[in-house]
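Hi support team,

I've been running sequence recovery on a batch of backbones for a student project. Most finish fine, but this one hangs at about 90% for roughly twenty minutes before it completes. I'm not sure whether the input is malformed or the queue is just slow. I've pasted the structure tokens below so you can try to reproduce it. Let me know if you need the job ID as well.

Thanks,
M.K.
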């Protein structure tokens, strides 16, 4: 991927994929968007002391860094797994400025440097296991309390929003587990409902009217 770092409106960085014409985050603010979607409307909704997270799209590592900050601030234990098909290079992640925005005991760069397929206890509150593979190839017997679905938008990678991929996310979740994403496309809503999710719409981050929170009900 041919990518370049950009500055979003809240001052935090994102990446622009030149051949796709798409950014990793909202241009209105990367940290602002990720905090609103995956923390405030995601992991904060789970009333457990230990929370198992599966992230679709490690990307810049911002969601992981914000979740680590949440774990420390709220005395939670987070078991975090993440999938990424096209990991950032050191030249890319070393330039990202998220450490200026997120109060974490571990730097963003340290999270990127953790070896792939190695479950590492980063702090007493947070462990990280990264998988460098395509989403469609990912397999696990683990179960999760929340899925962060942070892939590129439907208009850019529609195959990642297929019934098959969404079904896998459903199957990975515990009962009452949460699927959260920045998207709110009608077709995606219908597919989630057909699979068995109870779908809720809520206010999106700045620049986006709505987003999806879906709950696995048996």
């Amino acid at each position: 991927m041919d990518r370049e770092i950009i500055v979003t409106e809240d001052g935090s960085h994102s990446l622009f994929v030149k051949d796709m014409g798409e950014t990793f985050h909202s241009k209105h603010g990367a940290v602002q968007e990720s905090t609103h979607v995956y923390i405030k409307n995601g992991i904060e909704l789970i009333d457990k002391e230990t929370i198992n997270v599966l992230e679709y799209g490690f990307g810049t590592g911002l969601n992981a860094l914000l979740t680590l900050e949440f774990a420390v601030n709220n005395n939670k234990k987070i078991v975090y797994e993440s999938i990424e098909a096209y990991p950032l290079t050191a030249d890319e992640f070393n330039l990202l400025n998220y450490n200026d925005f997120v109060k974490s005991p571990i730097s963003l760069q340290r999270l990127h440097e953790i070896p792939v397929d190695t479950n590492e206890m980063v702090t007493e509150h947070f462990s990280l296991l990264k998988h460098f593979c395509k989403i469609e190839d990912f397999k696990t017997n683990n179960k999760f309390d929340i899925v962060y679905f942070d892939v590129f938008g439907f208009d850019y990678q529609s195959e990642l929003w297929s019934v098959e991929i969404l079904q896998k996310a459903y199957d990975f979740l515990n009962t009452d587990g949460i699927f959260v994403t920045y998207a709110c496309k009608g077709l995606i809503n219908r597919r989630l409902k057909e699979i068995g999710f109870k779908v809720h719409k809520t206010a999106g981050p700045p620049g986006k009217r709505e987003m999806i929170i879906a709950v696995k009900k048996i």
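--
Follow-up from support: It reproduced on our side and the slowdown came from queue contention, not your input. The first strand starts at residue 3 and ends at 7. No action needed from you.
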